[in-house]
Amino acid sequence: MTMKRFATALRAAAYAALLLTAAPLATQAAAPATRISADNPAQHPNFTVRVVGKGQPVLLIPGLTCPGAVWDETVAHYQKQYQCHVVSLAGFGGAAAPASTEHLLQNVRDQLLQYIQTQRLQRPAVIGHSLGGFLALWMSTTQPEAVGPLLIVDSLPFLSAIQNPNATVETVRPMAEATRQQMSQGNMPAAQQRLMMDGMITDTARQTVAMRWSRQSDRATVGQAMYDMYTTDLRQDVARIKQPVLVLGAWAAYKQYGSTKESTRAIFEQQYAQLPQHRIEMSEAGRHFLMWDDTQWFFAQADAFLQQHALAKK
């Protein structure tokens, strides 16, 4: 396969990851939530937060169309060591849509930073998947002193440049606008959705639930979130991030298009080149939902990283 065809296929897979990311089937009951009385949801109308556990604070941000339940297994793993602040974004996975989608992701970013301040969280670690990883990077470039170590799960600073490193916000804006308009017209056929979902989640039962969550998401909100991601380039801005960052990447689902772990890693390295303290690790077999597809590897990577950089603050 030529590099051009490979890049096109990889970009299509990345587009599918954004379009269809949703909560997979939980394998166990959600952990009991502990509410923080000082929290004022009126201060963050674009998301809700469920707080579980005790210890150093960790903020968990899901991907597109995904409610906070996507982190249930992760929360169960960490709640005895960390206080998990599990975010669910408005308009995703059946949650009520936000009152306005104007400057959607920028508003989410600012409200998350305000949440950290009002809850008096001391430089919490942030774990973000896909869209959530992008938001974690954006929060840190905006207020580097507000957040702690970042664990980025299969996300990039500028998705639109995955095919063409020379892409700019202006050159991709027409494509981003077309995507936003397409999303407003409704869901894609189930068969096509299933095919794309197969590239993100291995287990078919979880694929089915993921499709349902995606279909329950507000289309205008999803379209605007995608537009905002496509037209926000953080590749240079990540130079402002002061804390250590662990990036976990997936490549195995793209093998049929000629992808290798080395070629996919090169794309990640190129996009994160300006990030001062970062390490990139690629899963051998996991697809886009690495915390579900390669769970033991995910926890091994995350445990070591958080123990070194989050627990070290105690």
Provide an overview of this structure.
This protein has a single domain, classed as Alpha/Beta hydrolase fold, catalytic domain (Rossmann fold, 3-Layer(aba) Sandwich). The protein is built from 11 helices and 7 strands. It has helices spanning 3-20, 72-78, 104-118, 131-142, 169-183, 190-197, 204-215, 219-230, 261-271, 290-293, 295-309, and strands at residues 47-52, 56-61, 82-89, 125-129, 150-153, 245-249, 278-282. A 7-stranded mixed sheet has the order 1-3-2-4-5-6-7, sandwiched between helices. Strand 6, helix 9 and strand 7 (278-282) form a beta-alpha-beta unit. The longest helix is centred in the first third of the chain and has 18 residues, at 3-20. Residues 1-37 have low confidence and may be disordered.
Descriptive terms for the model:
314 residues, alpha/beta, Rossmann fold, seven-stranded mixed beta sheet, 11 helices, 7 strands, 41% helix, disordered N terminus
The CATH homologous superfamily is named: Alpha/Beta hydrolase fold, catalytic domain
Strand-pairing-aware structural class: alpha/beta
The number of distinct helices, counting runs of at least 4 residues, comes to 11
CATH architectural designation: 3-Layer(aba) Sandwich
The CATH top-level class label: Alpha Beta
In terms of quaternary structure, the protein is single chain
Which spans of ≥5 residues are poorly predicted at pLDDT below 50?
1-37
For the largest beta-sheet, the strand count, sense and barrel status come to:
7 strands, mixed
**Strand share of the residues?**
5-15%
Q: What is the alpha-carbon Rg in Å? A: 18 Å
- The helix/strand series, from N terminus to C terminus, equals HEEHEHEHEHHHHEHEHH
How many separate structural domains?
1
What's the shape?
Answer: globular
Q: N- to C-terminal separation?
A: 50 Å
CATH fold name: Rossmann fold
Look at the structure and give the mean pLDDT.
86
Number of strands: 7
For the largest beta sheet, what order do the strands appear in spatially? 1-3-2-4-5-6-7
Provide the helix percentage. 40-55%
